[in-house]
Amino acid sequence: MRTLMFGWEFPPYISGGLGTACFGITKGLTDIGAEVLFVLPRVSGEVGKKHVELIPAPGSPFDEARRPDRTKRPPGKLDFRTVDVALRPYLNEVRYRTLLKTEGEGRHRWTGVLETSGDYGENLLEEVFRYGYLAEHVARKETYDVVHAHDWMTVFAGVRASRASGKPYIHHVHAVEFDRNGENINRDIYDIERYGMESANHVISVSHYTKRLIVERYGIDPGKVTVVHNGVSVPNGWVKQRDDKRRAKVVLFLGRITFQKGPDYFVEAAAKVLERFPDTMFVMAGSGDMLPRMVERVAELGMGKSFHFTGFLRAGDVEKIYGMSDLFVMPSVSEPFGIAPLEAACRDVPVIISRQSGVSEVLDHALKVDYWDVQELAHKIIAAILYPALTREMGERCREEVRSISWSRTAEKIHAVYRRVCRR
């Protein structure tokens, strides 16, 4: 079976968990013999040829002469197409306009495909629409059995590709607007999300937690939604670098520093822990709109010597920070799934996660807290410091659980959804 898949990030160019999920899903699908054509938005100079096949042409975004010969392609193949669209998640309007200004140089002026001046749209929503039009062009040129699109920015791409080809459309929900902004949702994005779910032949949700939101907040028939948990790539031969001479424990927060991820609860809990164990080191790895506020709050609480802000980390540095950490904390306000705790667990780092998360459905041996209960979070961090033997046992049990949470199993379940919708 051949899948036309639309996403907006793919390693090594990632800003959150979706890129990691897309990599794992496509790897799992190709491992079981499926073929995936992955379409990725691109801004000039963003993606190197090492990672995708870039096919520019003056008349269209695709050069027919350079398309691969499918007769020579082995089973289980991942191909890329890129379209010149400025899609970036997690940007406010000011930062998005800056992106368009700084990255818009050198883009291609297309004729014969779209009635367009070649300029980027004035805002992110216009780029989402633009991606949809270009996706339709891809859909008319390629051969495939099913369309699979990830999250709201690819909704129009998935819908238009499906309608252009008559192939079934799978909408994969990794997060919804209520996760990102609580009750203060962007109504335009909400409407796009609902349109995608209503237009799809079937919806995949990354957790039962998210399925409940889909059913209750978007009015989607629960029979139309299948839960497929994300997986994790267990590193081969990875050895945790322990410093037995180091007295201070290192507690890690790794993720976007935004409302959804609960960084403020992590900071407030850290203050309570430091009252009891002043040698503890807290690390906040990531970037986001709440980062300046978190830096200011740490300074207000006088924790500057005990707190380290790393900024956004690439894969190699993420591995290093896991190796240095004694405990991983994810106090998310609303987490559809949460791949990072699985990554930490399979690297022998014990985890504390919020009960308001999808990953809590698959990790029975992690410590769990309600995100708002700073006192409980602090107590559990202190318990992990006080009782290292129990913490190690918890980490070992989590690691064993993670061994059964693979991208291969995720891919098999997704492939079963493909077969189901294609039989209808």
Alpha-beta content class:
alpha/beta
The low-confidence parts are 43-72, 90-121
Oligomeric form: single chain
Backbone shape: globular
Task: Please write the string of helix (H) and strand (E) elements.
Answer: EHEEHHEHEHHEHEEHEHEHEHEEHHH
The CATH class designation of the largest domain is: Alpha Beta
Read across the widest sheet, the strand sequence of neighbours is 3-2-1-4-5-6-7
Task: Give the CATH topology of the largest domain.
Answer: Rossmann fold
Mean of pLDDT = 82
Short description:
By secondary structure, the protein is an alpha/beta fold. It contains 14 helices and 13 strands. The strands form two sheets. A seven-stranded parallel beta sheet has the order 3-2-1-4-5-6-7, with helices on both faces. A six-stranded parallel beta sheet has the order 10-9-8-11-12-13, sandwiched between helices.
Describe this structure in words.
The chain has 424 residues and is α/β, with parallel strands linked by helices. It is 40% helix and 14% strand. The strands form 2 sheets. Strands 3-2-1-4-5-6-7 form a 7-stranded parallel beta sheet, sandwiched between helices. The protein has a 6-stranded parallel beta sheet with strand order 10-9-8-11-12-13, sandwiched between helices.
